[in-house]
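Collaborator request, handled under Task 6.
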Amino acid sequence: MTKRKKIGFGGGCHWCTEAVFQALKGVSKVEQGFIAAPAPDDSFSEAVIVHFDPAVIDLGTLMEIHLRTHSSMSDHTMRGKYRSAVYAFDEVQAARAQTCLDALQASFDRPLVTRVLEFRAFKPSADIHQNYFAKNADGPFCKSYIDPKLALLRKEFGGRLSCN
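Structure tokens returned to the collaborator:
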């Protein structure tokens, strides 16, 4: 039996990020909230913690999906709230994530702004925001922002989805 792992991802709205990772085979749980890293990234930023089975979906695939479903090449003014990051839980995971990030850079036409950071702390979102897409799939936010990300998943990573 493979031991489950966890990794943090931040970059865009945590409602969107949560929905993307909840749709994947091998992901058993997605915790939505805010993550802080060591200074200078110690402010809490919207993010998720993804619990996954590496025998079903590996870290590199999770990272590629993350990079392709948020503005990973844009250093926009909202990066304080939406820090583009992979939050590692130990040094081995951080080194592996950095290797993946470096390798994935070649498949993008501009430099990625995403960084590998040390996970420091997590605060969950309010209950009303948890499982946002499942509760609000027909709402305007989901139609405008989450549905296009899920459509990209179906097109580019269809075999990785728990349901199409």
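The cover message to the collaborator said: "The chain has one domain: 5-160. The first strand starts at residue 5 and ends at 10. Please let us know whether this matches your experimental observations."
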